[in-house]
Design a protein that fits this description.
The protein is built from nine helices and no strands. 64% of the residues lie in helices and 0% in strands. The chain is mostly helical. The two termini are 28 Å apart.
């Protein structure tokens, strides 16, 4: 979830400080519980053969970004919102992930060195941008059940007075 917190801040054009790299650790318990839930539910769906498990893993794929964006949510709520936001986008995400096959091959050939310095951050940032686009689509289509994800300031800049009022202690 540390990567998800950091990488989900980049598409929003938020400044990232060194301390932000560790901000995800404040939500470790919920993230761990979410990881366990995703693993168990994916395993259970996989018992119906492999394909349902793969499909469900794509349904659950945005849960960590949702939890990173909204730490007040429980793991089950993040999982439910991920299922809602991924409705109709699982195949699209599969093709998106498939587009990184060349990069993953480079990572394999270099025994993970390319992954450390370039491939993994690139894929994580691209996936975070995909999540931001999903949120924009969900907001545009006014999808029921994901109101908490409709953060206007993800899509537009706040007014100067509002920023000064909200962050007067640090400005």
């Amino acid at each position: 979830i540390v990567d998800d917190v950091t990488f989900s801040s980049l598409p929003k054009k938020e400044e990232i400080a060194v301390g932000d790299l560790f901000s995800g650790f404040s939500n470790t318990g919920r993230a761990l519980w979410l990881y366990i839930l995703v693993a168990v539910f994916t395993w259970l769906w996989s018992l119906l053969f492999v394909i349902p498990g793969i499909i469900k893993s794509y349904s659950y794929s945005m849960a960590f970004y949702i939890l990173a964006d909204h730490p007040e949510l429980t793991a089950r709520e993040a999982l439910a919102k991920s299922k809602v936001i991924m409705e109709g986008h699982k195949w699209e995400l599969f093709l998106f992930k498939l587009s990184f096959f060349g990069w993953e091959t480079l990572n394999f050939v270099t025994h993970g060195i390319a992954g450390i310095f370039f491939v993994n951050p690139y894929i994580e940032l691209a996936t975070a941008e995909y999540y931001v686009n999903l949120r924009a689509i969900a907001k545009k289509e006014n999808i029921e059940g994901i109101e908490v994800l409709n953060d206007n300031y993800l899509f537009e800049y706040a007014e100067e007075e509002l920023l000064k009022e909200m962050y007067q202690d640090i400005l």
